[in-house]
Amino acid sequence: MYTRVFHLSFFIWSCLSFVAFTVGSFQQNLKVRPYARDPLQDVVTWDEHSIFVNGERVLFFSGEFHAFRLPVPSLWLDILQKIRSLGFTGVSFYVDWALLEGKPGEYSAEGVFALEPLFEAASKAGIYLLARPGPYINAEVSGGGYPGWLQRVEGYLRTNATDYLATTENYMTSVLKSISNAQITNGGPVILVQPENEYSQAVSGIPFPNADYMEYVEDQFRKNGIVVPLISNDASPYGHNAPGQPAPVDIYGHDGYPLGFDCSNPSRWTSFNTNFRTLHLEQSPSTPYSIVEFQGGAFDPWGGVGFDKCLSLVNYEFERVYYKNNYGFGVTIYNLYMIFGGSNWGNLGHPGGYTSYDYGATIAEDRSVAREKYSEMKLQANFLVASPAYLTVTPGTPSTTQYTTSSDVYVTPLKSNETQFYVVRHSLFNSTEATTYKLRLDGSSSGNITVPQLGGSLTLNGRDSKIHVSDYDLGGTTLLYSTAEIFTWQKYGNGTVLVVYGGPGEQHELAVSQIGISSSEINASLDVLVNSTETSVIVNWLTSATAQYVTIGDLQVYIVDRNTAYNFWVIPSGNSLYTNTEDVNIVAKSGYLLRTANVTETSLDITGDLNATSPLWIVGGAPKNLKTLTFNGQEVEFSVDENGAISSNLTYIAPEFAVPTLKDLQWYYIDSLPEIQGDYDDDAWTLASFATTNNTSRALTTPTSLYASDYGYHAGSLIYRGKFTAKGNETTFKVETQGGTAYGASIFLDSSFLGSTVGNKSAASANATFALPQLGADEVHTFTILIDHMGLDEEWTVGSNTMRSPRGVLNYDLAGHDQSDVTWKLTGNLGGEDYVDHVRGPLNEGALYAERQGYHLPSPPVETWTKGLSPIDGISSAGVGFFTTSVDLDFPSGYDIPLSIRLPAINFTSTIRVQLYVNGWQFGKYVSNIGPQTQYPVPEGIWNYNGQNWLAVSLWALEAAGGSIASIELVASEAVQSGREQVQVVESPAWSQRAEAY
Ligand code: IPT
């Protein structure tokens, strides 16, 4: 394979250049560590172009995947294979501290929270990892990854405040040990690690960047065994992180979200980066150009427009224009955030988002790969990994005049030795016009020619971008130029296969150097014009939906349109990217997804997925003497054509299965707000006794702190009970509550409903004043206040203290009383930081009675509940009803049948808040008057597809008339016949009596 030869020579070259560049970097660039590492000692090294792994240049082409957002470890390989099948070499992941250290000092990363299965899946899929354990991660998670108990630490977060630093020790030591063990130096997949995240911006008045802090964090990494390079993710390569006050790492990286996060106008392409190369040269010329997060979709807030719109905003056209623009800057460490978003199950999200974290990403939340942006991504990544010259390019000066015949076309030249890449886009980057042009190959070995030479012009359609090449090495044969884009090329013992594609109806041309090939060795399909000269073979065609070919000696060129190219795959035989570089890559076309291949002398075993019967066409990599071809273990018939390509047909057999009709099931109901009953006993509740708070974000305005996190309650919902002895003169009760954006609250006096704050998409807190009925003197009364907890805010800006923005009751005034006349108790999840459910983690439960009792778990004690009342029946007064039913599933194996729960459309006049639990895992939070989410994917593995499941629903009606859920349905999306590994049902302990529960 070409890789060997190539890598060896570049390794030697890199060692020499390494020394030169690191020396140069001492004064030049303070954003990277000013000391040299020994490239001969280190497994992962770098120069100004790329990283090297074991001496070989590697393109780190990566997507962000948060395993914690898909709590079914046996599905992680499914995702990683789908990423690997894109041609990607890497995945970046965050670790969410809040899920692993619910109680200070007790780190627990077991079951769905364990990292090792992720490392194993990555090794198996052949994917390198970039580990990003924080301590701060942002990521639209509660507290930005900080556990709620950090609200009680006085020192500024993300600074070198001693008390803050101390809180990080246990987590960092533990998580870094896991990550260290998984480094490539220990045989694992981790090749890069990122300390902190976007340590880029602070409020004024706080010393920033705090070099001592970053040094401390980096020392934690090194002390705990991290030896691979440390990389940064600067959010502000635009100047905030002033040079001279750096947070130095080994490799400087930054992020980029040019379209931001407003998905409401999906065709809005407003900003575009043209200066990344300049910034790179200013900031870190000695390290590979690294974009550690680039927009792969967008998050969407409560009341947002929904992820369909985000998908349109960051779609395949965005990928073409914006990503190719980044290649024009020579990026070789590149991570798309997110490649698969997953779900904010179990209260893990921040208040700026809802349960779905689909993100409009390449891979949908239900793990399907039917989005066009998946296919487009596959074309791009495969091209770059097949182009070793890309790893040593130097971007030249872009021009609108030099390289084409049209000034509407903007070209960035990238040069590496002989090879030149021409990154082509519209001069007006967001133009929707089609522009015709010809390409000038100035300085190529073909001379100063203008192409196409044999007729026609090139077309650049609106919102498109292309990469043309010249003097591109096909493993010994020179592709003199190609205006058609390369999908892949592979060299085999018996010849070379090249697959090129063009947009629909486009004219293209390529030329191959003539190396003693006689005209009898040139063959082409009818629609292709071939002109063979002394020095070159020129091929010109109009792209059509029918695949064309041309054979030039032992080079087999397949010519397809983009839609056809979408169905091509490059699948390595064997399964490890980094231990088996000698392996053959299969090039094949097939419908939905190809995952793995295994080639022997006479057999080829392929795994993949089908959503319809699909032809399989293998154009490269099959053994010459193929006897047995299997797909997902089943032998299939095949034929071989004159070019050696294999044809077969993969039959899709529609599965037979029934999706239960939820409304017809046997439901059980129990009241879940017994707190408003006269005889309710809150003896076991936490007394709000702290006269002070460490929470520095807001001074107390109550005699004792009513901040939930002061008492260990950080997620889900909160209930407060305030007792007072009436004087008979009470007229009003005024209360200020805070639950985070889109929260709601209901307030009761004894069993009388006073009213609710129904919430809206922008309010995190609210004041409400209620008229009180005439109370008798000396009577004891109780306020009960239920507050939705939408997660803790992030701390994106250092010193903002937003993460500490409290949840709970902020202030109150009972007319005619001193505040101290009211004695408050509160609860959140049972046990608070001594949370009960160590399988589902510290955030999965809130304060609701049913949750405290564990009734959301499988097999609750329904014998004593009301039988036959469903969420569709609802409840007839303000309060909380809790419903459960058992759902039997019996789905056929060999299929991937994503399920989701569908609730009614958003209705701004309805005011219910619903939580959905499948086998105890909270997988949906629905707010009827805010939205936007109404459909909740729940993964297989949380569901047991062959057995009994428990679906529980909490229904909080915020209005006096009560409320109901007009409909609740279980919906199956497209059933895919799948070659993925068997899903292991996640351990989901059933209900058992909770002795301490109240
Ligand atoms: C960037 C964060 O690094 C990442 O954690 C996530 O929050 C992402 O944004 C948005 O989804 S911060 C960037 C907006 C400057």
Automatic annotation (TrEMBL):
The keyword Ribosomal protein does not apply. It catalyses: Hydrolysis of terminal non-reducing beta-D-galactose residues in beta-D-galactosides. Its EC number is 3.2.1.23. InterPro entries: Betagal_dom2 (IPR018954), Betagal_dom2_sf (IPR037110), BetaGal_dom3 (IPR025972), BetaGal_dom3_sf (IPR036833), BetaGal_jelly_roll_dom (IPR025300), Galactose-bd-like_sf (IPR008979), GH (IPR017853), Gly_Hdrlase_35_cat (IPR031330). Residues 390-568 form the Beta-galactosidase domain. It comes from the Eukaryota. SMART domains: BetaGal_dom2. It is found in: Secreted. Residues 1-17 form the signal peptide. Keywords: Carbohydrate metabolism, Disulfide bond, Glycoprotein, Glycosidase, Hydrolase, Polysaccharide degradation, Secreted, Signal. Pfam families: BetaGal_ABD2, BetaGal_dom2, BetaGal_dom3, Glyco_hydro_35. PANTHER family: BETA-GALACTOSIDASE RELATED (PTHR23421). Belongs to the glycosyl hydrolase 35 family. This is Beta-galactosidase. It comes from Pestalotiopsis fici (strain W106-1 / CGMCC3.15140). The lineage of its organism: Eukaryota, Fungi, Dikarya, Ascomycota, Pezizomycotina.
